[in-house]
Amino acid sequence: MQNNEILLTEEDFGAFFARAQKSVFRLEIPTYFAFEEVDFQRYQSTGQLDLVASADWHHTVRNCCIRGVTWTRVKKLVLPLTGYAKFLYKHFWYNQAQGEQIRVVPEAILLSHLQAHSWLRDFWLFDEVEGCFVNYTPDHDFAGFTRLNHTEVAVCTEVRRQLLTASIPMGEIPEILALQPPQGGV
CA dist 5 to 12, 49, 136, Å? Predict the structure, then answer.
């Protein structure tokens, strides 16, 4: 974290969703999150997702979308999918059932859009007026959120525009489509 970054509380982060009126956007670059290791281990041993643990998140997504907020995530795509990536994309199908639009962008294309902004990392953008970076430790553990300044919001808004054009719906990737739950399963 740089000296001028403002660390946000969980309440600050949650307030972004309550204030959103038009759009919620997430750029998700990492391919692994250490803080989900327990859920992933359970999935590997049972083949089942813990949707109860995701209920609050699904409620947040659904409530935003019911209010007319467009919720979009662009995720870095690396093929072939690892076991962990399959676990994430299975979860994404349930997020999508709540109203989230999930798109993927191949790693090489993503990097070409980010090369002019080497400081850019995972971020959330709300109504193109405010947002935050998502911070991780070198070991992939979650390390908090930091508020975007006005310049960063402008850059993230432009990156959002570019990536929405460069990305495709996750269901257009056969390896991800195969992970979709059976009809009625979401």
Answer: 14, 35, 14
Q: What is the pTM of this model?
A: 0.92
Q: Which residues are within 8 A (CB) of 94 and not within 5 positions of it... i.e. 6 or more apart?
A: 49, 51, 54, 58, 181, 186
What's the pLDDT tens digit per position in 114-135?
Answer: 888 888 899 999 999 999 999 9
Q: Which domains, ranges and CATH numbers included, belong to the chain?
A: 7-177 (3.30.870.10)
Nearest to 40, CA basis, from 163, 175, 140: 140
Question: What is the residue-wise DSSP string for 6-75?
Answer: -EEPHHHHHHHHHH-SSEEEEEE--S--GGGHHHHHHHHHHS---TTTTHHHHHHHHHHHHTT-EEEEEE
Mean pLDDT of the residues in the chain: 91
Map residue 99 onto helix, strand or coil: coil
Q: What angle do CA 125, 131, 135 make, to 5 degrees?
A: 100
Cβ neighbors of 22 (< 8 A, separation 6 or more) are 68, 69, 70, 127, 128
